């Protein structure tokens, strides 16, 4: 970019993407505490992001007692490092998180703990080596190009970017997992996983108060049926692939093959159930989070013409047959856009752990059972950590300015030993889709601005309708 265009871009007013209103914290009294409890359940049902009042965006730590439980809300990078990295063995996942995810993912990498997690992580790490992730680049391009051809037929029409990105990222993931295996009914699986997200995307009020498991939860029975159907569908495919491998037949080097091979390691074997658990984990976590980031990216770029022009300059300057694994080097500003979108709209909007034994963080005593909460939504907008925290400003991730970002202030993929194992896969996929789509289409937002709402992932409140036109 020329110095003149850079100066023009710097002079442009900063864009503030949609966000829910923030409340002002009030001094607690018996009345406000009672009303606060009622408000808590109301807000949790509507949008948990609204729980965070203005004080949390300024203070590094806050201690709370709610419904008889102790909470420590931490947004200081050094304290975050202590809980989630340095002393992570003293903390387990929170009850509410596990109540939402474990019935579906069981012992998948996202929810497993202790020795089960250590063994699975050891077995699965080789599946996500740079060589393997790079090898999936061509599949990502192939699926993205196929979807682009479908959208080209609909030029001039309005499409739901939410639906398109959820469908596209699932198609990409299934192609990388199963190499378009004819025995796998992808449309059926897609309907099942989307339905599961609809019926189990929020913690049940009984989970919030840690009611016993025998207390019925509305929707839990329907979710269990969907989970069983999905497990049977994935398990049948894994069993068929295993038989082919045992017979010495040629099989594709896709995720399924790599996972089955990894599961046979003597030092970290995986049972058949654990293989199914992790396949479902990759499908659930690996497509929805990426889809949400892409949807927000397309929307924000439609609102920021200067940023879009800089992205298009990089897209149009890509060399022929550019290696998908090298797109971040060819498109540094676009890569910064993705990081900024992840800062403003982290798909995983909250990290939480529960103390096993007593601990001390930043001079504060933590009793056993205390739940330590870090909202990545708040952390990524904290006034002590970011300039213009609510503004879309990708340049903050570039050059010397990017080097000043505190290490534990930007956590879209988590941190420490439990950092997302598929982070490089997701970043590669996002850049591939942006390059393929923006190289061919102009996308214009035609509906009301979507509001971020927190479910299992942070998602837009609308279908994000956009009109698609050829460039």
Automatic annotation (TrEMBL):
Cofactors (names): heme
Alphabetized InterPro entries for the sequence: Cyt_P450, Cyt_P450_CS, Cyt_P450_E_grp-I, Cyt_P450_sf, Cytochrome_P450_monoxygenase
Keywords linked to the UniProt accession: Heme, Iron, Metal-binding, Monooxygenase, Oxidoreductase
Positions with a binding annotation for heme: 420
PROSITE patterns named in the record: CYTOCHROME_P450
Signal peptide: none
Gene Ontology terms for molecular function: heme binding; iron ion binding; monooxygenase activity; oxidoreductase activity, acting on paired donors, with incorporation or reduction of molecular oxygen
PANTHER family named in the record: CYTOCHROME P450, CYTOCHROME P450 12A4, MITOCHONDRIAL-RELATED
Family: Belongs to the cytochrome P450 family.
Protein name: Cytochrome P450
Organism expressing this protein natively: Aquisalinus flavus
